[in-house]
Design brief:
This protein is an all-alpha fold and 219 residues long. The protein has helices at 2-17, 20-30, 32-40, 45-59, 78-90, 96-103, 107-118, 135-142, 153-156, 175-187, 194-200, 205-216. It folds into two domains: 2-118, Cytochrome Bc1 Complex, Chain D, domain 2 (Orthogonal Bundle), CATH 1.10.760; 135-216, Cytochrome c-like domain (Cytochrome Bc1 Complex, Chain D, domain 2, Orthogonal Bundle). Bound molecules: heme C (2 copies).
Length: 219
């Protein structure tokens, strides 16, 4: 199972090296081949066992976490989940809780857990205030030209479904978790995504809260 790991490293190098606009247009097509090995891996019993005995405590066995600072994993792109687990283990995405969780996972476990959670059915939520016509919707669909803030939809898809394999699903994610991540990108605390650091750096606290609320209602 060396190939997916190599593909992810290549994906990481690409995401770090290519300019914003060009990446948004080219990356999805360029990654289609790399997506195959992980997507074709059969969902094995051992991933389900790890998920139901370890991960379930915080993410629920089906990946639809209830506590809103714990991200939902159900329906997430398998390759994205695997990348994050690798980044937690290496410390590239520094988080004490997930660093400890990932420490005991093998590269193979990470691929299989990505497939397992990616295959779970995501539950939907509602936005609290940012429905149609809101600031959150405007930022998500059109960005803010005056600030050079790009539309989130251009990389994460119009419904937040994500674009394999590099751009994660956002739809239905807990707003509390999304706010934490956008602030962590902005401060540099989450340093595993150079593109998102640039983007979050253009957002005010008000922008972040609004778009996170809108994202929670996407389905
Ligand atoms: C003690 C609670 C806890 C347990 C157990 C746990 N997680 Fe997490 N997980 C978290 C928290 C909290 C975060 C958010 C970290 C952050 O804020 O960056 C997270 C984040 C993640 C992410 C990143 C998701 C994203 O959208 O970027 C993945 C993937 C993940 N966990 C997978 C797992 C897997 C697989 C297991 C089981 C091996 C597991 N977690 C066990 C609490 C937990
Ligand atoms: C140029 C492409 C691009 C654009 C535009 C973009 N993103 Fe992202 N985003 C990414 C990539 C790539 C990642 C994955 C980072 C990683 O691999 O760790 C990501 C990750 C994220 C995450 C982390 C998801 C998680 O589960 O932890 C959030 C939240 C996010 N983006 C929100 C936004 C919002 C809000 C906007 C619009 C203001 C936006 N993004 C616009 C490329 C983009």
């Amino acid at each position: 199972m060396k190939f997916p790991a190599i593909a992810l490293i290549v994906a990481g190098l690409l995401s770090a090296g290519i300019a914003l606009a060009a990446d948004a247009a080219k990356a999805p097509a360029a990654k289609t081949e790399a997506a195959k090995p992980a997507a074709q891996a059969e969902a094995p019993k051992d991933a389900a066992t790890i998920a139901t005995t370890v991960c379930a405590a915080c993410h629920n066995a089906d990946g639809n976490s209830v506590i809103t600072v714990n991200p939902r994993l159900a329906g997430q792109l398998p390759e994205y989940i695997t990348k994050q687990l690798n980044n937690f283990k290496s410390g590239e995405r520094a988080n004490p809780v997930m660093g400890a969780m990932a420490a005991s996972l093998s590269a193979d476990d990470m691929v299989k857990l990505g497939v397992y959670f990616g295959a779970q059915k995501p539950k939907s939520s509602n936005a609290k205030e940012n429905g149609p016509g809101s600031l959150g919707e405007k930022i998500y669909k059109g960005g803010v030209a005056a600030k050079g803030l790009p539309a989130c939809a251009s990389c994460h898809g119009p419904t937040g479904a994500g674009i394999p394999v590099q751009f994660p699903r956002l739809a239905g994610q807990h707003a509390d978790y999304t706010v934490i991540q956008l602030k962590a990108f902005r401060s540099g605390e989450r340093a595993n995504a150079p593109m998102m650091k640039v983007i979050a750096g253009k957002m005010s606290d008000q922008d972040i809260v609004a778009v996170a609320d809108y994202i929670q209602g996407l389905r």
